[in-house]
Every structure is written in C-alpha cells, then in structure tokens.
From TrEMBL, chain A:
Species this chain originates from: Motilimonas cestriensis
Segments crossing the lipid bilayer: 12-34, 61-81, 93-115, 121-144, 156-180, 200-218, 249-274, 286-304, 316-336
Signal peptide extent: none
Protein's name in the database: Iron ABC transporter permease
Family note: Belongs to the binding-protein-dependent transport system permease family. FecCD subfamily.
Alphabetical list of PANTHER family matching this protein: ABC TRANSPORTER PERMEASE PROTEIN MJ0876-RELATED, FERRIC ENTEROBACTIN TRANSPORT SYSTEM PERMEASE PROTEIN
Keywords assigned: Cell membrane, Membrane, Transmembrane, Transmembrane helix, Transport
Stored Gene3D superfamilies: ABC transporter involved in vitamin B12 uptake, BtuC (1.10.3470.10)
Membrane topology: Multi-pass membrane protein
InterPro entries reported in the protein's UniProt record: ABC_BtuC-like, ABC_transptr_permease_BtuC
Subcellular location(s) of the protein: Cell membrane
UniProtKB/TrEMBL annotation, chain C:
Described function: Part of the ABC transporter complex HmuTUV involved in hemin import. Responsible for energy coupling to the transport system.
Protein's name in the database: Heme ABC transporter ATP-binding protein
Source species of the chain: Motilimonas cestriensis
Transcription regulation keyword on record: no
Keyword entries, A-Z: ATP-binding, Nucleotide-binding, Translocase, Transport
Length: 342, 279, 282
C-alpha cells in the first residue's frame, strides 16, 4: 500500500536554511582568498583594500543575487510548463523558447560582431540579450499559434510544434555557425553554455522583478494548475477559463525564460530536474511545489555557479556545463526509477 | 612635440625603474610571445588559454580571453593586464580597472609595423625598452631579408592556408589573418584574400578555381594525418590543385598563427620562403 | 439564492429573475449538432426534473457522447437550446456554472501523485468558501463515497473503482454549494469497473438523486440502466427515439429497433425492473 506522506510544510525550513547557508557560503568562497573578517568589513562598506571591496560588492554579492533569481525563474517556469503540458519531461526548452532565444542571440553575435568594430556600443548596449528575448518570445508565439485552432490549444500539437521549431532554430544556428568567423564561433559556444558573469545591478533588478512577477502570478494560479493536471476538459468543467489560463502561463514562462536566457545564456537542466525534486519532496500540489521549486532552483544554480567560479580558477567554467554534469545523471536515474510510469 | 618627447622620456624612466617589478597577466598569444621575447616572463603571473604553449602550463590559466573573470584575475593580484583588443567582456575590464589593475590594450594589426608597435607598447609596460630596440632590429632584419627574397610580382606563387579539422569543413584563411600575413611576407600571394576575410568554409570548386601553387596547413593537421600523401588522400580535392599535383603542401607552426602577426610568424615566413623558392 | 460575482452585473440582472428550485435542472429543446454535413445530434428535446436519475442509451455512434458534450459545453454553441436551471447554458458565468454542473469523466488522465484527498479537494476550486471549509466538505464527501480510508493514498496507485469514487467525491465537493440543486453528468462511469464496483457507484448515484441532485449519465449496460434509472433516453442516429421509465422504454421491440439485435426482456423476480437478454445463439 502506497501511502502519500510528504514532508509538506516542514521541508521549507531546512530548504530555506540550506539556501541561506549556500548564499552566505557563496559570498565567502572564491578564487581570491578573502578572510571572513575582511569580507564582512567589505560588505559593511568599511575600510578594506579596494580590490577586496570590489570583489565582494561587484562580483560575489551580485552573482549570488542573480543566481538566486535566475535559478528560481528557470525552476518556476519548468514547474509550470510540466503542469501545463501534464508532461513530467517538459521543460521550457520543449516549446522552443530556449531554441528561439539561442537563435536570436546567435543572430546578434554573428550580424553585429563585425559592426561592433565600428560601433562598439552596439554589442555592449545589449543586442544579444534583446535579440535573445525577442527570439524566445517569437518562437513561443509561433508554437502557440500552430497549436491553436477554434477549439482551443492542443498541448500535443504545441509540443510537436516546439520540437519542430527547435529543430529549425537549431538548423539556423548551425548555418550561422558555419558562416561565423572564429571569434564569433567561440563567443557563441561560450554563450550557449551559460554564464553568470553578467551580474550587474540593472540585470539583477530585472531578474528579481521578473521573478517577483512570475511568482505572484503563478501562485495565484497554483490551484488551477492542480486542476489542470486532471485534464483540460475536467479543468474547464471545474469553472476554469482554460484558454485564458494557458495563454497567460505560456506567455509568463516565455518571458521568464527569455529574460533569463538573455541575461545568462543557456543554462540547462534547472527547469527540468528541480520540479521533479520538488515533487519528490512535497508532491505535485502546486501551492507547495511552486515556492519549493523556486527555493531549490536558486539553491542549485547558486551551488553550480560557486563551483564554476572555483573549480578551474583563475579561469571559470561555464555554469551550464556544471548544471548539465550534475543534472543529466540525476535525470537518467530518475528515468530509470520511473520507467513504465511516464 | 617637445612635450610628447618629454612625456615619453618620463615614461621611459618611470617604466624602467618601477614597471620592471609589475605583476602581469597576458591575455593574447601574441602578447605572451613578445613578453617572452623581451625576457620579461618573470613578471608574468598568468596568461590566457591560448598562451599556454609558451610556459607549458607552469603559469595559471585565466581562461578564454573573451571571457575573463574579475575575481579570477584579481586572485593573481596583478598590477597590469595586457590584452588584445578582442579581450573582454568589457564589464570585467572596467571592474579590473576599478580594482586598481592597469588594463592595457595593445594595438592590433597584421603588418610588420603593427608588430613593432606592439613590441614597443609592451616594452613600455614591462620596462624593457632596451630589449625592445634589439628585438625590433631583429624584426627589421627578418623583414628585410624576406623582402629581398621576395620575387617579382609575376613570379610570385599562389599560396593558401587551410584549417582542416575533423568534422568541420575546410576553412580558408582570408585577409586579416596571421596566415595571410605570413603568405605575403614569404613572398607569395593569397588568392583567398581578395574575396574573404577571417576564416571561412571553402568549397572544393572554389579551391580548384584558386589554383594554388602552395598549400599551407598547420603542423598539427599534418601530424595527425601522418604525411602529405595521407593528407592528399584524405582530401582528394586538394590533390587536384597544382599544389597537390606537385606535392607542394607545407605546414606552419600553430604558434605563429594564433592571435595576430608575431615574431614566430616572421620566422615561419622566412622558413617557408626558403622552402618555396629554394634559396 | 445564487451568489454572483461582481464582474457580471448584466448576468446578475438575468439571474435575479429566476428562482432555481422551480426551474428544470436541465432543459434541452430542439438541439441539433452537425459536423461536416453529418448530423450527430438531431432535434433532441427533453427536460429533467430535480432528483431524477436519467440514463442515456444507444448503440455506438448514436450521439450519446455528443449530447453530453453539448450539455457540458465542450463542443458547439448551444445558444438557447440548452437551459440549466432555467437559464441558457451559454450565459452562465464559468465559476457559477461549475457550482451547479459537474461532470465525471470516463477516466481521468491524472498521472501525478496527488493524494486521493487532494484530488477530492480540487472540486472546491470555484467555491466561494475558505480552504479550510473545502477540506471539511471534501472529507465528508469522501466518507459518503466510501473512500475516506484512502485519503492519503497516491491517486495513481488506486484501483479503477476507487479512482471513480474519489472523483465522485471531487464532483460532489464541486456541487456542495448548490444546496442540492446540482446537475451531475457521468460519461460511462462504470466502464472500467468490476461488478461490485459498478453497483457501488450506481447506488451512490441513486443516493445523490434522493438528496435532490439530478443525474444524467451514459451507460452501455442495459441491465444496469434498467436497474438504476428513473428514466431512459434511447438514442439512434442522433435522434431521441424513446423517452420514458425503464419498464416502458426498455421493451424488446424498442431495443431491437435501436440496436438491430434480437433480445428477450423479462422482469426481475425481486426488483421488478426489466432484464434484457440476448436471443441470438452463438
């Protein structure tokens, strides 16, 4: 007899403490040896060596904040996507958001890199993030249009359209790769593996504003998402305006993923494994799952980024490599465990 | 004019006394080469990933020069970062400057004059002006010798450089590459420079149409394939070119091809010049 | 009296005119539904009384599912041909409609490991009551459908009959604010169940009818229909051919006409409802 006995609310305390510990740990760990006293002094804006205060205030703390927000956004979007598609293998990549964003970024890198020599502001003003965001949104819109007819939106067709458009974006990306020069090629490769190095205060503000918006909106729809897991007709019969809900959630996910891709490049697996981990701990109920996913997503990305900063110091490994290295085996184990259930 | 000279003098004095003890991170293979050539390598505390062949991994590696990290660099406590103009990202360079690291971008270009300019700039930063003038003399001597051994325009051979990698198409070196500079310095013409810049994938037909007399590849490519015969067997379209038929396929040291024109590029150009024109 | 959301003042005006207890829970008049020149539902009219247990019967392709889907709003624009508690179906606000009309699907595709209790609580989504109250209501309904002991079990691990009864508790929770003026639609609720489970679910439906909830369901088993229905609707080719109490509706003549198959109809020795048997030899 299988009894569902999740840790429910009690899990939030240890997860929160763990996150706090990781956050504190991440700002005391780095390739530059900084003593705890010095670090605290730097945080309190007291007299320390200029490079110490710079590393604390402009590198470690901003990155910690950006990791928390981006990890949470990716995990929330993944959770909502899996709920919306009633498919535990769905992630934001599956409806083509990431592919579209990647294509946008590649276009920007390849097209604008030669121009950047003459107009250096072009790249620094963020053509890459802007193109990534619009690429992601455009693909989401396309996939949504393909999946919709007068009877509503077919999730199955959206998934297939997402796969097709992702393949198309992949081909276009390959084409760009083929014609890009060496420089752009390396830039593209680095970008596609993700990096938290873009942790500037405006970026952090954007990430946290996005996270807050997503969290508030998703929380309000948590119960509706639960009903959605029963099936679309059932949800409709329970008084949910299914089409409105779907459109809202898909657009929010696209915005969230598009923004995070544009700020940090492609970071895989967070949106895929965190919802699973969350469900193992608190079950599929979104009222609990969503906040837990946000915490776990932030935690995972924070740990991954700390590792990426330290492991090959003074160089840095792209954070996407770490999440994939940690995530893929976990996911394969999960598939083994759930064989026949999915 | 007087002011410029006096400033230069002051900086020379300043550099030779104080800057000689700078701790330097080099972000660019060409820059590292010059630092070694100037004998300033004791000042190096780290280099980018493309420079590792100069120190065989004995110095810390700060990664790809387009993805430098603030904290990683600062952990080496450098006084000076000498970087090529491609180095970045800009935010990292700005933050480094804020942290008190002197960030110097050396001038770029694949002409001999550009190389000499770079040597001077780096010598200034490392306080090695004396060694720089010796080095520049050597560069001049090499360049002169190359110029003397360059045949008249009509007798110049057509040479191309091909980047052959497993799984990706053959890339042809166009203008604005060290390979193109080497081809010109060695007294040949690069037919690809007319149409392309940087490295671009090349079709078999385009290669045949260029009818190169000489094909250049990197040491690594030739070593991986074993011999010129094996290379031509693996790339049949090359065998059909004049260079392939005459077995005029030569290899260049990879170090002379990375980044921009360097001192080893000149040496390679001279070596190839001797091979091709049989001096 | 109904509670209305502030967002729909024009509807509020309409709804104030009626007094729900007097209106028929379901009134279908001259309902026709066509897809690509094919008439799936052909001019069907009937009305259900409160507390009635009505079973729709007919061969495959007779239009049973289409009829149910039209009433539940999954397909078509019903216009004024379908009225629920006196009001045209299409003008009901979504949330309010859900409080009065619930649908129990044949089977649910839920594969996520909700507990049975959580599934039952999902019915409270559109109710204007607190989460705490919803938990209490769901608990009551699970007791009523005899699944309270399964409350903490993972839904996917339940048997077919247990799942159906959990869903029954869910739809009852959904109808719990309707003061026993609910309409419950069931689409072949017994198709995946064994004998005992089938009777258990249908007995529950009868109990609900006694409380005032109106039940409309599609069944395949003529004998189950004969045993539990107050009223039988016999459909063929989209048309309503027979409408009446089991004894009057389920005659050998009617059944042979509708199903094109020879049967013999007897009377149950104890319960007195008709029993239908095949007359054909194998």
């Amino acid at each position: 007899m299988l009894i569902v006995r999740y840790q429910t609310r009690h899990i939030f305390v240890p997860t929160g403490l763990l996150l706090l510990a990781a956050a504190i740990g991440s700002i005391f760990i780095g390739p530059l040896p900084i003593s705890i006293q010095q670090a605290i002094k730097a945080l309190l804006n007291q007299e320390v060596a200029p490079h110490v205060s710079l590393v604390m205030q402009q590198v470690r703390v901003p990155r910690m904040l950006l990791c928390l927000a981006i990890g949470a956004i990716l995990a929330l979007s993944g959770t909502v996507m899996q709920g919306l598609f009633r498919n535990p293998l769905a992630d934001p990549g599956i409806i083509g958001v990431s592919g579209g964003a990647a294509l946008g970024a590649a276009l920007a890198i390849v097209i604008f890199a030669p121009l950047a020599e003459f107009y250096p502001l072009l790249l620094t003003l963020g053509t890459v993030p802007v193109f990534a965001f619009f690429g992601g949104s455009l693909v989401t819109f396309l996939v949504y249009q393909l999946g919709s007819n007068q009877h509503g939106t077919s999730v199955a067709i959206m998934l297939l359209a997402g796969v097709a458009i992702s393949a198309l974006a992949g081909a276009a990306l390959g084409l760009l790769n083929y014609y890009a020069d060496e420089q752009a090629l390396r830039d593209l490769a680095l970008w596609s593996m993700g990096s938290m190095a873009g942790a500037t205060w405006p970026n952090i503000a954007l990430a946290w504003a996005t996270l807050t918006t997503l969290f508030v909106c998703f929380r309000q729809d948590a119960n509706k998402l639960n009903a959605f897991l029963l099936g679309e007709p059932e949800a409709r019969h329970m008084g949910i305006q299914v089409e409105v809900l779907k459109r809202r959630l898909i657009l929010l996910c696209a915005a969230g993923v598009g923004i995070s891709v544009s700020l940090c490049g492609m970071i895989g697996f967070v949106g895929l494994i965190i919802p699973h981990l969350g469900r193992m701990l608190v079950g599929p109920n979104h009222t609990l799952l969503l906040p837990l996913s946000a915490l776990l997503g932030g935690l995972l990305l924070l740990i991954a980024d700390t590792v990426s900063r330290v492991i090959v110091a003074p160089a840095e490994l792209p954070v996407g490599i770490i999440t994939a290295l940690a995530g893929a085996p976990f996911f394969i184990a999960l598939l083994f465990q759930q064989r026949g259930k999915i | 004019m007087m002011r410029a000279i006096s400033l230069l003098l002051i900086s020379l004095v300043f550099s030779s006394t104080v800057l000689a003890n700078n701790k330097i991170v080099s972000a660019g293979a060409t820059i590292t080469e010059i630092i070694y050539a100037l004998g300033a390598q004791q000042q190096l505390v780290g280099t980018d990933v493309t420079s590792s062949k100069w120190h065989n991994g004995t110095l810390p590696d700060v990664g790809y020069h387009r993805a430098l990290t603030v904290e990683g660099l600062l952990s080496l406590t450098p006084d000076l970062l000498i970087a090529s103009k491609e180095a970045g990202p800009d935010t990292t360079l700005q933050l480094l400057q804020q942290a008190g690291v002197n960030v110097r971008i050396v001038s770029s270009g694949n002409r001999v004059a550009d190389l000499k300019q770079r040597i001077n700039e780096i010598a200034q930063q490392t306080g090695r002006m004396e060694q720089a003038s010796n080095l520049n003399d050597k560069v001049d001597a090499l360049a002169n010798q190359l110029q003397q051994q360059t045949p008249a325009k009509a007798q110049q051979q057509k040479a191309i450089f091909l980047l052959l990698r497993e799984g990706s198409p053959a890339s042809l070196a166009g203008k604005e590459t060290p390979a193109d500079a080497i081809i010109n310095l060695m007294g040949a013409t690069n037919p690809a420079a007319a149409t392309i810049s940087s490295y671009k994938p090349a079709s078999a037909e385009a290669l045949l149409a260029m009818a190169p007399d000489v094909i250049l590849v990197s040491h690594r490519t030739l070593k991986a394939l074993g011999s010129v015969e094996a290379l031509l067997a693996a790339h049949p379209m090359l065998a059909a070119t004049p260079a392939g038929q005459a077995r005029r396929v030569f290899s260049i040291a990879g170090t002379s091809l990375i980044g921009e024109l360097g001192i080893s590029s000149l040496h390679e150009a001279l070596r190839l010049n001797n091979r091709i024109y049989g001096n | 009296m109904l509670k209305l959301s502030a967002k729909t003042p024009h509807l509020a005006h309409h709804f104030n005119d009626i007094h729900i207890p007097q209106a028929a829970p379901l009134q279908v008049s001259h309902l026709t539904y066509q897809v690509q020149q094919q008439t799936l539902v052909d001019d069907i009219s009937f009305a259900l009384k409160r507390g009635e247990c009505c079973v729709v019967l007919g061969p495959n392709g007779a239009g049973k599912s289409s009829l149910l889907k039209l009433i539940s709003g999954e397909i078509g624009q019903a216009g004024h041909n379908i009225r629920l508690f006196g009001q045209p179906r299409d003008i009901w606000p979504d949330g309010l409609l859900a409080q009065h009309l619930a649908i129990l699907p044949q089977h649910s595709q839920l594969s996520f490991a909700f507990s049975a209790f959580e599934v039952a609580q999902l019915g409270g989504l559109s109710l204007p009551v607190s989460q705490h109250k919803i938990r209490r209501i769901a608990e009551q309904n699970m007791r009523a459908t005899d699944v309270l002991h399964l409350a903490q079990r993972a839904y996917p691990s339940l048997s077919g009959g247990e799942k159906q009864r959990v869903h029954l508790a869910r739809v009852l929770t959904q109808l719990s604010c309707a003061n026993n003026h609910g309409l419950l639609i069931l689409d072949e609720p017994t198709s995946a169940l064994d004998l005992a489970q089938q009777h258990k679910v249908l007995q529950l439906c009868r109990q609900l009818c006694q409380q005032g909830i109106t039940v409309l369901m599609v069944l395949h088993d003529l004998n189950l229909a004969a045993q539990y229905a107050d009223r039988i609707l016999l459909l063929k080719s989209g048309q309503l051919l027979v409408d009446g109490a089991p004894k009057q509706a389920l005659t050998a003549e009617n059944i042979e006409h509708v199903y094109q198959y020879p049967v013999k109809v007897m009377s149950h020795p104890e319960l007195e409802h008709p029993i239908i048997m095949s007359k054909s030899h194998h």
